[in-house]
Amino acid sequence: MPEPLSPGELLDLDRQHVWHPYGPMPGRTAPLLVESASGVRLRLAEPVEGRDELVDGMSSWWSAVHGYNHPVLNEAAHGQLERMSHVMFGGLTHEPAVRLAKRLVDITPEPLEHVFLADSGSVSVEVAVKMCLQYWRSLGKPRKQRLLTWRGGYHGDTWQPMSVCDPDGGMHELWQGVLPRQIFADAPPAGFDAAPDEAYAAQLRELIGRHAEELAAVIVEPVVQGAGGMSFHSPGYLRVLREACDAHGVLLVFDEIATGFGRTGSLFAAGHAGVTPDVMCLGKALTGGYLTLAATLCTADVADGISRGALPVLAHGPTFMGNPLAAAVAEASIELLLSQDWAQEVKRIETGLREGLAPAAEHAGVREVRVLGAIGVVQLDHEVDMAAATRAAVREGVWLRPFRDLIYTMPPYITGDDDLARICAAVCAAAREG
Q1: Is 121 labelled a binding residue?
Q2: Strand, coil or helix: 140
Q3: Confidence class for position 167, pLDDT limits 50, 70, 90
Q4: Catalytic position from the list 255, 278, 408, 413
Q5: Active-site entry in 284, 408, 413, 419
């Protein structure tokens, strides 16, 4: 065993060698060093702002819906580890992947029935786009190779996903002129409960109709636009997209990486609209935050179309595709979620967020407070001072990760009422000081 390193030594090495997400190299701000995690708490290696543990208000980027160190998921991981941690998926298969695929088909909207297991959410979007492009090539319509989406979206940091993220002011603006040129509608009008705006619906229909000959697919985040701005829109626009895509021969893709597995109050956000896409992307909470895994589901029509082409296979195969360890934990996470009254827990969190975040609306500099399911957002009228907002949250004993003009929380579903109140207090403090 290597000699243990002190917290100071670890942070020095981190600064020298570790490139953190969305940060410079070397980093300008020291990250907090987590020693362990259990339930909804992150244990720090050394105290920060007088706190040696923090309530996690982020579910580790929205994935750890059951919290940390959960005995059911631990047991699933240990049991699978004793059998095999990995085996290649080309020419081989195994029970965890088969069982997981069947479970995903069972719980997602019909008629999604084929499952491609990918490494991460961004890769699942790459696979979805490849499915759509190859579908039309296989049907002899290679001109249908562009994508349509609405502004304010975020679909990942790899190539095709970047091309359908918001083109102006987003994280990927640097790549304009290099990425594939896609078609963008205006961002959907805000408000989950707002009646659909007919003028906006007409814009969607017109754009899809005008570009139908070159459109392979429409891809959107249903109901919640996540990292693009944490905004909510009416489910009615999903019905508009479904009808327009059907009318003009265009595939429809829902990116449910952030919204899947109950986060919005419906098991999948598509359920709010009662529509089914041709392709659906899942990730994040799929394994309960234990391991990286994602899935791209499609209808039999999409799969059959690809199979009729000159290249009758989907030429995509990640090395760790269908990883048995991740698949076993994912199935256990889904069963754990469905064995409980998850909808009531999400509703409880929604109620707590509405009550606890309401005072933030009175703070100077706050533009809007909004809540949907287990998502709470405070939007400022200025860019967040990340360092000040983070310090304020840590002083309250909570870990948050603000960005742009947003201070938000997506807590684990197991968060108790007292911890939820603490998270809300931390969001309010971060809004006041950030």
Answers
A1: yes
A2: coil
A3: confident
A4: 255
A5: 284
Instruction: Flag whether 154 is marked binding.
Output: yes
Q: Is residue 350 predicted with pLDDT exceeding 80? A: yes
Place of tokens 């309401």: 358
Which has the closest alpha carbon to 48: 30, 36, 61?
A: 30
Q: Give me the pLDDT at residue 165, please.
A: 87
CA distance 103 to 330: 10
The candidate with the shortest Cα–Cα distance to 221, out of 176, 283, 306, 133, is 283
| Per-residue pLDDT reduced to its tens digit, 253-268 | 999 999 999 999 999 9
Structure token pair of residue 186: 């205006």
The span from the CA of 343 to the CA of 347, in Å, is 6
Q: Rounded CA gap, 418 and 424, in Å?
A: 10
255 annotated as belonging to a binding site for a ligand: yes
- Which among 68, 135, 154, 408 is annotated as catalytic? 154
284 noted as active-site residue:
yes
- Determine if residue 408 is labeled as part of a ligand binding site: no
* Residue 158 marked ligand-binding: no
For 165-201, letters b (16+ CB in 10 Å) and e give: bbbeebbbeeeeeebeebbbbebbbeebeeebbeebb
What single letter denotes the amino acid at residue 174?
L
**pTM of the predicted protein model:** 0.96
Contacts of 297 by beta carbon, 8 Å cutoff, 6+ apart: 104, 105, 108, 112, 113, 114, 115, 116, 279, 280, 281, 282
Query: What order do you get walking across the sheet with 215-220 strand by strand?
Result: 112-118, 294-299, 279-282, 251-255, 215-220, 146-150, 183-185
State the chain's mean pLDDT as an integer.
96
255 labelled catalytic: yes
Residues 276-305 have pLDDT tens digits of 999 999 999 999 999 999 999 999 999 999
Q: Binding site annotation covers 318?
A: yes
Q: Is 401 annotated as a binding residue?
A: yes
- Segment holding 430, helix H or strand E: helix 417-433
Q: Do 80 and 96 touch, CB atoms closer than 8 A?
A: yes
Look up tokens 């296989």; give the residue: 138
Asked if omega into 31 is within 30° of 0 (cis), the reply is no
Element (H, E) at 326: helix 324-338
| pLDDT single digits (tens) 27-65 | 888 899 999 999 999 999 999 999 999 999 999 999 999
